[in-house]
UniProtKB/TrEMBL annotation:
It holds the Pfam family ABC_tran. Residues 1-21 are annotated as: Disordered. Keywords: Amino-acid transport, ATP-binding, Nucleotide-binding, Transport. Belongs to the ABC transporter superfamily. GO terms for molecular function: ATP binding; ATP hydrolysis activity; branched-chain amino acid transmembrane transporter activity. GO terms for biological process: L-amino acid transport. This is High-affinity branched-chain amino acid transport ATP-binding protein LivF. It comes from the Bacteria. The keyword ATP-binding applies. InterPro entries: AAA+_ATPase, ABC_transporter-like_ATP-bd, ABC_transporter-like_CS, BCAA_Transport_ATP-bd_LivF, P-loop_NTPase. Residues 26-263 form the ABC transporter domain.
Amino acid sequence: MSRQDEAAIDTGHGGGGPGSAEAPLLAVRNIEVVYDEVILVLRGLSLQVPRGAVVALLGANGAGKSTTLKAISGLLKTENGSVTRGEIVFDGARIDGTDPERIVRRGISQVMEGRKIIADMTPLENLRLGAYIRRDGEVQDDLERVLTYFPRLKERTGLAGYLSGGEQQMLAIGRALMARPELILMDEPSMGLSPLLVQEVFGIVRQINRDLGVTILLVEQNARAALSVASFGYIMEQGKVVLDGTADALRDNEDVKEFYLGGSGDQRKSFKNLKSFRRRKRWL
Ligand SMILES: Nc1ncnc2c1ncn2[C@@H]1O[C@H](COP(=O)(O)OP(=O)(O)OP(=O)(O)O)[C@@H](O)[C@H]1O
Ligand SMILES: [Mg+2]
């Protein structure tokens, strides 16, 4: 990373957020994503995730959050989407355009929106599937370790399709862990869960990050829950980042409070129409 880049990404918040001097584990730089060769969905999106951090990516329906994660994990290809501009750098190497399986081998696992577990396999079979790329002899040990985070899954010997929503979410996270990733991309883990279960799932996210040192990029519509575990957050609208800051700064931001933390909740309002909205030129 050049000196100029380092200066450009200094958000001035300090505290080890994406403004810190060490090269980030993941850097998404000014990407454009197009589906079916014509539908432009991401329009110059940039973000970064420092090693060891939990970073939140927030935004309303259709903002492009899942598209961002799929661009990183390579899964865009399976939906006839592609990165047409910009670059994605993971651990010092370009990964945009790389096949999803190679990206998993490099150390990125995605927990898909809607969980996508395999309903007609048992939870244990689902977990083992998460280790399919591994050729080492420690899969069984890891299985035991993962189950210590999700003790309830041990008791569920039937098919995964019969698990509750919260259990399925935990299984999906457990399966991602089985690949021994450095970075987990999580797509709306709170979706469809009761407030109590949301707390439980986010408690596990925090534990995984602290105990195992796994870096996490967390996509959420539930800004309150996400900012309770993340140290830094980005808010996106219509395919680009419109605001970013430390979790504390975002929680205290009046606009964020109004739009995302239980204010009017009117999604039609836009940061773009606010006086306080300041377009960031640093990536242009
Ligand atoms: N496979 C696809 N082909 C064409 N357009 C798509 C495809 N997937 C997503 N889109 C479009 O891209 C835009 C962003 O979608 P995306 O799923 O990334 O949003 P999101 O922020 O994850 O929304 P949500 O909160 O509803 O999950 C939407 O307008 C959507 O219609
Ligand atoms: Mg989505």
